[in-house]
Amino acid sequence: MKIKRGVSICLFSPKGGVGKTINAINIAGIFKLLEKKVLIIDFDIYSGDIAVCLNKRVKKDLYDLSFDLDGRLFNSIKDYVTKVDENIDFLAAPIDPRLANKFNASNIVDVINYGMAEYDVVIIDTNHALNEISLSVLQSVDFIYLFAKNDPLDIKGLKNIVTLLDENEYDNYRIVLNNSRDPFKHYFTLFDLKKILNHDIDYTLSEELYLKDMDKYIMEGIIVTLDKHFPDYFFKDYKTYLTMATDVFGGDENE
Ligand SMILES: Nc1ncnc2c1ncn2[C@@H]1O[C@H](COP(=O)(O)OP(=O)(O)OP(=O)(O)O)[C@@H](O)[C@H]1O
Ligand SMILES: [Mg+2]
C-alpha cells in the first residue's frame, strides 16, 4: 500500500436527516477553495445520496471496488471514482441497493487508506446506524465530526455517542451543532448543551445557512460553498467551514 498522504474525516450522527450529506459536500467545496484534492466516500452503503446530490452518473461504485479488492483485481482507486471537478472526486455507494448487502465491510480500512494515499483529504459520509460499517469508519479516521440539530432527540443520541467515544478514549471528535438544517429548532442553550454533553460545541452552523431552495441546488448538482457569492452572503458560516477545514491541518493552512 502507498504511503499515507492525506487526512481523513467522517461526518456521523446517531440520528438521520441532520445534514451530514449536504455538509460533506459543502466542506469538500471549502477544501477545494484551499486547493486540496478531495475524495468523498459515501459509506452510507444502503441509502447513500452523494451521487444524487452532485447530480452525477456513476460508472463504478463501492460494490465494484469491494468486489475487486476481494478478487485481487484492484489496481487503483482512481478506477472507481466519479469526477466532480478538477479537485473533487467521489466513491459512490452501491447504485443497485441489492448489492449493498454484498459490500464487504472488512475492506473499509483499505479503501480509506487507498484514498489517503492519493488525496489530500478524504471526507466520509455515513449512515446514522452504529453498525459494523460506521464503527469501522469511526475507528479508522483522523477526525470525527458529530452532527446534531438542537432538539431533544438529536441531543439524546449525541450524548450517547459522546459517552461511547469518551469511554473508549477517542479525543479526535468534534461536535457540530447544525442550526441550518431546521432553523426553528433551538431547544437548548449552549450552556445546557455543554453541561449535558460534558463537551464543548466545537462548531455551530447558523440558522442563516438554511436554504429554502436547497433542493434546487441538489437537482443541479451545485456545491453551495463554491457559489462565488457564498462568502459574501454567508460570511459567518463560511468562516466556520474554513475553521473546520483548517483545523484538520492544525489550523495553519490559511487560504
Ligand atoms: N442548510 C440547509 N438548508 C436547507 N435544507 C437543508 C440544509 N441542510 C440540509 N438540508 C436538507 O435536510 C435534509 C437532510 O439533509 P442530509 O441529507 O444532508 O442529512 P443526512 O444527515 O445526510 O440524512 P441521512 O441520515 O438520511 O443520510 C435534506 O432534504 C437536505 O436537503
Ligand atoms: Mg446522508
List keywords for this structure.
15% strand; binds magnesium ion; Rossmann fold; 8 strands; alpha/beta; eight-stranded mixed beta sheet; globular; binds adenosine-5'-triphosphate; 255 residues
Molecular structure report:
Helix 1 (20-33) crosses helix 10. The longest helix has 16 residues, at 152-167. Helix 7 links the parallel strand 7 and strand 8 (203-205). By secondary structure, this protein is of the alpha/beta class. It has a single domain (7-247), classed as 3-Layer(aba) Sandwich (Rossmann fold), CATH 3.40.50. The protein contains ten helices and eight strands. Helices cover 37% and strands 15% of the residues. Bound molecules: adenosine-5'-triphosphate and magnesium ion (MG). Magnesium ion (MG) is lined by residues 20-21, 44, 49, 125. Adenosine-5'-triphosphate binds next to helix 1.
